[in-house]
Sequence to fold (305 residues):
Amino acid sequence: MFDVVIVGGSFAGLSAALQLARASRSVLIMDDGHPRNRMSPAAHGVPGWDGVPPAEILIRFRADLAGYPTVSFLNDRTDDISGAVDAFEVTTQSGECIRARRIILTHGVRDILPDLPGVGDAWGLTVLHCPYCHGYEVKGRPLAVLATGPMAAHQAHMLRADWSEDVTVLVNGVDGLDQQALSAARIRVDARTFLRLESGDGIRVTFQDGPAADFAAIFIAPKVDLAGSPAVRLGVGMSDGPMGPYVRTGPMQQTDIPGVFAAGDLATPMWNVNFAVGDGARAGAGCHQSLLFPDFIPALEKEAA
Ligand SMILES: Cc1cc2nc3c(=O)[nH]c(=O)nc-3n(C[C@H](O)[C@H](O)[C@H](O)COP(=O)(O)OP(=O)(O)OC[C@H]3O[C@@H](n4cnc5c(N)ncnc54)[C@H](O)[C@@H]3O)c2cc1C
Fold:
């Protein structure tokens, strides 16, 4: 019986584990090795680590934990958690059943990329999700936003204001973009039918008609999914965010299931390594408090269906 099983051993999960480790609590971190930004050559905007490859940051996080004897790692995944507070059962993909008094969900989200040729290969390299994370490296150069929904206009206005005077929205058949407001902000709108993307130094977009267009990078706001994830299978309460569902949490990252905490990308509509680390630490501390004082951090009220 572990005090805590943490499902997802990346930025949020490892940060949660450190708080629990420092209270000498027994913690098992399960992870199957697919952090969300793994294809990015560098993570930006993370104090002390700005421009460092994400894998390198995670190696350091794990190295910190290696000094604590109550922390164990398991390279495996779980899709099946059952039981209740003080008696959860986590079944691993390899068939092991692990028991725990508390669960922290930090397994992140799955990006749903537009199904267009070339987008997947360029994801994290020249197809980017966030101006704060990767905009500075391409500032002042021609940029595009590939629309996946109305948030595309929001991204385009941000980029035009503070990153580049040369911004194009690739409409990609998406309705609901305020084209008048885009034009008023001197943002180009290109509604041609998209054929494919080719990545090199920058990125070239080929359309069904007319000349190709070259950009330093294309931004998209990806939809995210939690379908089939441990959070959904456990039945924790969700909220709807602009890009997809996320787990509803309270001030100490508690969910609406007693003994279950959640942090990182799966528990917020805005994603960033710093937020994941901060919320992870809060989940670790909250979870520890709940082990000591079971009524101190009550679970959230269930919302009516
Ligand atoms: C392309 C890209 C680039 C980015 N660049 C930046 C950047 O430069 N700066 C920045 O601040 N943010 C960046 N982000 C956002 C950042 O990646 C996330 O905010 C951060 O990774 C969230 O951390 P997390 O711990 O919540 O989830 P993740 O890092 O996604 O980790 C979740 C972990 O859980 C594991 N897992 C999933 N399911 C299971 C399961 N069922 N069982 C066991 N383990 C499981 C996964 O393998 C993974 O290791 C970027 C995002 C993307 C998509």
About this structure: Residues 7-13, 30-37, 39-40, 43-46, 77-79, 106-108, 111, 123-124, 129, 133, 230, 264-265, 271-274, 276 surround flavin-adenine dinucleotide (CB under 6 Å). The chain has eight helices and 19 strands.
